[in-house]
Automatic annotation (TrEMBL):
Gene name of the record: proS
NCBIfam families for this protein: PRK09194.1, proS_fam_II
EC number(s) recorded for this UniProt protein: 6.1.1.15
Gene Ontology molecular functions: proline-tRNA ligase activity
Name listed for the protein in its UniProt record: Proline--tRNA ligase
Coiled-coil intervals, chain numbering: none
Species annotation: Paenibacillus aceris
Written domain comment of the UniProt record: Consists of three domains: the N-terminal catalytic domain, the editing domain and the C-terminal anticodon-binding domain.
Catalytic activity: tRNA(Pro) + L-proline + ATP = L-prolyl-tRNA(Pro) + AMP + diphosphate
Role summary: Catalyzes the attachment of proline to tRNA(Pro) in a two-step reaction: proline is first activated by ATP to form Pro-AMP and then transferred to the acceptor end of tRNA(Pro). As ProRS can inadvertently accommodate and process non-cognate amino acids such as alanine and cysteine, to avoid such errors it has two additional distinct editing activities against alanine. One activity is designated as 'pretransfer' editing and involves the tRNA(Pro)-independent hydrolysis of activated Ala-AMP.
Aminoacyl-transfer RNA synthetases class-II family profile domain sequence ranges: 33-468
Assembly and oligomerization: Homodimer.
Length: 577
């Protein structure tokens, strides 16, 4: 393609609200333009890169035995109501009515639609297993679209669904997709980790997120440098360092806790300074309402509750904090809640509380706390769960090595759905004996447009983009220094035709611009190889520059094609001696 004919509206400056590096680069390099908040148009270069990602996805899923299809983006509300997600999914689901007042949603995900299709088309075990996928635009009414393509209201997604007759079959389908995802993200040039995660509104069990490591990422990854353990913060577990052996300077009373006056001391920090003690010896009590009933949640004072874990333990989609009035109804008072003496209320504890001795809790009385609490003695019937966020300094439960934390961008997610949707929507099959059973499902998503943004977050420098060879809109950037020079133009034309005939994609910068402008634009666009036809054109010599390594060297015209082919056969790694 000749650059003077191509729409590549590069920018010197970008809007101040473009926080993420990928967003700034896509705007500066003319890959995308914003139409509305969280809604973008892909210009030619952006679309080419997006299509290359789609090609990799298709090749790997097809190789794994999945079959591509295309489903509607407009979903009748009846499907979502039948699965129970019309109300559960929340305000992110974009809802609308047609002229007849019938309710619809713009597809945020397609579990209901694909399950209905399979329900109507597959009734026998002989047609199982099968895996189906599509690449399609999705819609979510994000409260705060941000970071360009990383969190938008309209985005391109690959969603796949497996259908099996047995749990063992689901395991095999899941592993097949997991392996395909590893190949996809490796081919895309991403630095990523597969981590244990929570299934969220999709539902199901045994789920992994594929996270591209990047400082701009909104997810926190907890991983062990010594073994293979890795999890999203919402799912991560760790081993806390032991708490101090002594909590309070108050004299002990044998056999029971002691009530001490703590006027207007209502926070962990205030209590720690007042007594004084370590927050690790304080048991904080959080009063919530879940499933219509009050619950007291106990954690060590230096720990924070993990809302996802808490919801899962309680089997609740949401919970709210109890008001001061509701706390008084329990026989306590806000700021001084404690588990000892409370009646008719469910109490659950995080494992950080287990075994604490000489601890401090609220006394359920204004301006008083209890000290010298022994959990095993005074709270013998506690139910323990993993309810907290893992923190810096904790150790791996598997090998004991200290855990590391990193930020990541979720680019893929795989779920074992089980029969969640097949049961609610009636997707059944007949086994060999004619018995009817629900189909066992898996779900596998890749944010294709988010992958594009994640690639740029990991591949740039102060001059611009550094494309992985597999994704680059063009493989070679051919630059003619002076287009008025007939010798340079003639040689450029020969090179362009030679490389194009060999199947290499080439953008030829034949614009009447100053050389400095062309070189700066070439670095900004960041294609893997730049071939510059300049003052040595009469000698059939050109300059070649590798964008990633920065290496520059001269080649004869006869060497160009072989060099380019070798370069890209090795994945765009420097091969020049």
């Amino acid at each position: 393609m000749r650059q003077q004919r191509m729409l590549i509206p590069t920018l010197r400056d970008v809007p101040g609200d473009a926080e993420a590096a990928s967003h700034r680069l896509m705007l500066r390099a003319g890959l995308v333009r914003q139409l509305s908040s969280g809604i973008y148009s892909y210009l030619p270069l952006g679309l080419k890169a997006l299509q290359h990602i789609q090609t990799i996805v298709r090749e790997e899923l097809d190789a794994a035995g999945a079959q591509e299809m295309l489903m509607p983006a407009l979903h009748p509300s009846e499907l979502w109501k039948a699965s129970g997600r019309w109300d559960i999914y929340g305000p992110e689901l974009m809802r609308l009515e047609d002229r007849h007042g019938r309710e619809f949603a713009l597809g945020a995900t397609h579990e209901e639609v694909i399950t209905t299709i399979v329900k109507d088309e597959i009734q026998s075990y002989k047609k199982l297993p099968v895996t189906l996928y599509q690449i399609q635009t999705k819609y979510r009414d994000e409260r705060r679209p941000r970071f360009g393509l990383l969190r938008g209201r309209e985005f391109l997604m690959k969603d796949a669904y497996s259908f099996d007759r047995t749990a063992t079959g689901l395991d095999e389908s899941y592993q097949s997709m997991y392996n395909a995802y590893e190949r996809i993200f490796t081919r895309c040039g991403l630095n990523f980790r597969a981590v244990e995660a929570d299934s969220g509104a999709i539902g199901g069990t045994d789920t992994h997120e594929f996270m591209a490591l990047a400082d701009i990422g909104e997810d926190t990854i907890v991983h062990c440098p010594s073994c293979q353990y890795a999890a999203n913060l919402e799912k991560a577990v760790g081993l806390l360092p032991p708490s101090p052996s002594s909590a309070s300077k108050q004299p002990k009373l044998d056999g029971r806790p002691k009530k001490v006056h703590t006027p207007k001391v209502t926070s962990i920090k205030q209590l720690s300074e007042f007594l004084p003690i370590s927050p690790k010896q304080i048991i904080k009590s959080i009063a919530i309402e879940a499933n219509g009933a009050p619950v007291i949640v106990l954690l060590r004072g230096d720990c924070e509750v993990n809302e996802i874990k808490l919801k899962n333990v309680l089997g609740a989609s949401e919970f709210i904090m109890l008001s001061e009035t509701d706390i008084q109804k329990l026989g306590s008072i806000a700021g001084f809640i404690g588990p000892i003496g409370l009646q008719n209320v469910k109490i659950i504890a995080d494992s950080s509380v287990m075994g604490l001795q000489d601890a401090v809790v609220g006394a359920n009385e204004a301006d008083y706390h209890l000290v010298h609490v022994d959990v095993e003695r005074d709270l013998a019937d506690l139910a323990y769960h993993d309810l907290r966020n893992v923190t810096e300094g904790e150790c791996c439960m598997s090998c004991g090595h200290q855990l590391s934390f990193a930020k990541g961008i979720e680019v893929g997610h795989v779920f074992k759905l089980g029969t969640k949707y097949s049961q609610s929507l009636g997707a059944l099959f007949s086994d060999e004996n004619g018995a009817s059973e629900p189909i066992i499902m898996g779900c596998y998503g890749i944010g294709v447009s988010r992958v594009l943004a994640a690639i740029l977050e990991q591949n740039y420098d102060e001059r611009g983009i550094i494309w992985p060879a597999s994704i680059a809109p063009f493989a070679v950037h051919l630059l003619t220094v002076h287009v008025q020079d007939e010798v340079q133009m003639k040689l450029s034309d020969e090179i362009y035709k030679s490389l194009s005939r060999a199947g290499l994609t080439v953008l030829w910068d034949d614009r009447e611009e100053r050389p400095g402008v062309k070189f700066n634009d070439a670095d900004l666009l960041g294609f893997p190889l730049r071939i510059t036809v300049g003052k040595k054109a009469g000698e059939n010599i050109v300059e070649c520059k590798e964008r990633r390594s920065g290496q520059q060297y001269e080649l004869t015209v006869q060497q160009i094609l072989t060099h380019c082919q070798t370069f890209f056969q090795t994945g765009g790694r420097s091969s020049h001696e």
